[in-house]
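User: Design a sequence. Structure:
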């Protein structure tokens, strides 16, 4: 039954949330027309989408003209201040674009053709494929290559004229050519005679874009190029060698609201009356919003993965009419290997055979994804002393995805997205790498809101991971654990060895008032500490509240006593201080008031065997704090006064770690790089942090296993 299902889609998927991509693409096509009208020696501009499977490349180019029509003037005339004359020119261009004919060209059909003297000529093969695509589109059948060569003889004007005749187009009518699957050129080295550089290298993409540049000289012809490829590398070569300007189409993953729109607008012809997908899969006890959130959690909003997941759910509904989806049944269905294999099938060969080099880079990319570290377009990763690769291209090569972020200063940066649907397959490829397993499992448990909030929390993440590794692998020879044991007699009595490998978990945040949102992950109230300690926090697991503004420490965990019945609830306040000003006494008191006091009042008073410890881990202490503590770590116990204003409650302790102890725990060089990165922003990009620092984090974490 699955094999029948795989041969076709179960519904007509509607393209949503591509307004930004339409505006960018239309602007580039208009720019080409303007340049063409101004001078004949212009540099063509071509929209380019070098993305991985599932990014929505093919669906976008095939539906582009329809999307332009649906957006009307917004596709080219935005809020910017332009003259009435320019607006009229743009309206005229849009009117002609609405009448344009799309010629879709699948480059997987690109092959050497018969004419002997031109058999390995790429230009002739492209020209023939263009004409063949036009003939097949018009229903005329496949043309004879020999006859075509006699007529065209590599003349672009003759080729375009013949294409117009076949498609019954006027000479002033726009022809939009969409080249898809451009990545096949990576596998065509033996098929064509490419131009060779002085050092004997060939660059097939330079040849292709040189051919497209020649075609752009013809009036009223436009191009979009898409397909998995080393996009940035091609982009830079095309500018310098092919004299073509490529502009990236972002095609970012969809967010929840867009997934809801997709579910509500797409119809399934497999069901009587072609109802909307939301009507088929949802019901009064399972809303479209809930389904959209689950699909976002599973697929990361990647359109291709999303469509496949919906197809599979519709297949299940069609074969089991009584099926009523819920959160539990959704995960039961989609965690099945048949479902996951179907959804990621195009990526399986790549995911299951990671080379040693790519495995080394995997941890770095996972850290970028886990901590939401943004990177710039031209950022390089040094693979060896003689070989660098663009991070932009590396993300695609590793079967991951990118999300474009435009900040308030209109600076464009990217984040790495690793959909949870892929994590299990990546784990199988690195089953002996415990650190990668930990990072991937932590990423898998991370709420999807984390990604779309895009708050960089590298310091908290590092501290949580380091503590976890110490608990699992080095509890007896951990310098940090030794320091905590010297300061706290309760810590010293705890069992510091985790009995099994686990991961960091993300929990609801704690706020003044409970959220009224319908989303299941609402927040805890500040009076819910008894519930948190008794029901939420499990032993031998580390938790991170998923909002950075939580009224709680940044890290929470619960420890067993070794021999006695005592247990310990631990909170770690990670106070990243990256400027000259260190943490002050009033901030320390605030952390104690929002954790030690309510936990004592709500929990410790009814559980006399439970103790509570707050650890202040700050990258920098204020001068007054450091001086008062004599530049050493210090523990405040029951009855001690902190800054003269807060008294430590019964069975509670407060430890303030010195800067030197924090530095030894995290690493001097890592902290130095983080200090440089965070001095002006809460969300540093990787160039601020430094790829070398991210790799150093990987090395530091690896040494703890």
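Assistant: Done.
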């Amino acid at each position: 039954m699955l094999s029948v299902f795989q041969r076709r889609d179960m519904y007509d998927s509607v393209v949503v949330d591509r307004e930004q991509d339409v505006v960018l693409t239309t602007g580039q096509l208009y720019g080409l027309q303007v340049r063409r009208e101004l001078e004949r020696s212009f540099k063509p501009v071509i929209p380019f989408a070098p993305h991985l499977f599932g990014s929505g490349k093919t669906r976008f180019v095939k539906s582009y003209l329809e999307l332009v029509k649906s957006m009307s003037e917004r596709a080219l005339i935005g809020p910017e201040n332009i003259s009435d004359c320019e607006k009229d020119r743009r309206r005229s261009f849009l009117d002609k674009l609405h009448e344009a004919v799309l010629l879709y060209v699948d480059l997987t059909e690109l092959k050497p053709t018969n004419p002997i003297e031109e058999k390995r000529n790429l230009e002739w093969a492209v020209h023939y494929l263009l004409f063949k695509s036009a003939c097949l589109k018009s229903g005329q059948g496949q043309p004879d290559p020999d006859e075509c060569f006699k007529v065209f003889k590599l003349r672009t004007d003759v080729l375009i004229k013949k294409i117009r005749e076949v498609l019954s187009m006027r000479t002033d009518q726009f022809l939009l050519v969409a080249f898809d699957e451009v990545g096949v050129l990576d596998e065509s080295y033996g098929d064509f005679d490419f131009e060779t550089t002085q050092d004997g290298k060939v660059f097939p993409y330079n040849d292709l874009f040189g051919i497209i540049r020649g075609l752009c000289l013809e009036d009223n012809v436009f191009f979009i190029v898409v397909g998995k490829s080393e996009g940035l590398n091609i982009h830079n070569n095309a500018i310098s060698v092919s004299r073509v300007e490529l502009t990236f189409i972002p095609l970012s993953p969809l967010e929840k609201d867009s997934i809801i729109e997709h579910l509500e607008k797409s119809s399934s012809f497999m069901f009587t009356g072609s109802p909307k997908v939301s009507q088929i899969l949802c019901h009064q006890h399972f809303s479209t919003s809930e389904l959209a959130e689950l699909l976002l959690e599973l697929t990361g909003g990647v359109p291709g993965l999303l469509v496949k997941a919906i197809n599979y759910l519709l297949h299940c509904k069609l074969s089991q009419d009584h099926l009523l989806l819920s959160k539990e049944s959704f995960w039961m269905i989609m965690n099945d290997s048949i479902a996951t294999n179907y959804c990621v099938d195009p990526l399986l060969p790549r995911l299951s055979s990671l080379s040693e080099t790519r495995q080394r880079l995997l941890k770095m990319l996972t850290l970028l994804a886990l901590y939401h570290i943004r990177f710039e377009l031209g950022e390089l990763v040094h693979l060896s002393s003689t070989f660098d690769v663009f991070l932009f291209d590396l993300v695609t090569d590793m079967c991951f995805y990118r999300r474009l972020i435009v900040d308030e200063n209109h600076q464009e940066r990217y984040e790495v997205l690793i959909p949870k649907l892929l994590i299990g397959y990546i784990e199988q490829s690195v089953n002996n790498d415990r650190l990668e397993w930990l990072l991937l499992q932590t990423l898998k448990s991370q709420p999807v809101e984390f990604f779309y909030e895009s708050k960089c929390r590298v310091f908290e993440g590092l501290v949580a991971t380091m503590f976890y590794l110490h608990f699992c692998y080095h509890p007896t020879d951990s310098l940090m654990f030794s320091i905590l044991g010297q300061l706290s007699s309760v810590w010293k009595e705890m069992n510091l060895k985790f009995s099994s490998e686990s991961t960091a978990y993300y929990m609801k945040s704690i706020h003044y008032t409970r959220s009224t949102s319908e989303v299941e992950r609402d927040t805890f109230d500040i009076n819910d500490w008894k519930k948190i300690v008794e029901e939420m926090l499990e032993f031998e697991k580390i938790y991170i509240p998923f909002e950075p503004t939580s009224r709680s420490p940044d890290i929470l965990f619960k420890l067993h006593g070794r021999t006695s019945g005592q247990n310990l609830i631990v909170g770690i306040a990670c106070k990243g201080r990256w400027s000259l000003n260190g943490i002050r006494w009033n901030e320390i008191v605030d952390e104690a008031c929002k954790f030690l006091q309510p936990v004592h009042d709500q929990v410790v008073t009814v559980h006399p065997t439970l103790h509570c410890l707050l650890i202040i881990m700050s990258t920098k202490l204020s001068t007054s704090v450091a001086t008062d503590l004599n530049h050493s770590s210090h523990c405040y116990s029951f009855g001690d006064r902190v800054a003269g204003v807060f008294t430590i409650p019964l069975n509670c302790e407060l430890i303030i770690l010195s800067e030197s102890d924090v530095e030894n725990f995290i690493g001097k060089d890592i902290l130095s790089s983080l200090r440089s990165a965070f001095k002006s922003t809460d969300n540093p990009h990787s160039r601020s942090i430094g790829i070398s620092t991210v790799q150093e984090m990987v090395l530091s974490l690896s040494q703890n296993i």
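The CA atoms of residues 585 and 625 lie 6 Å apart. The longest helix spans residues 19-38.
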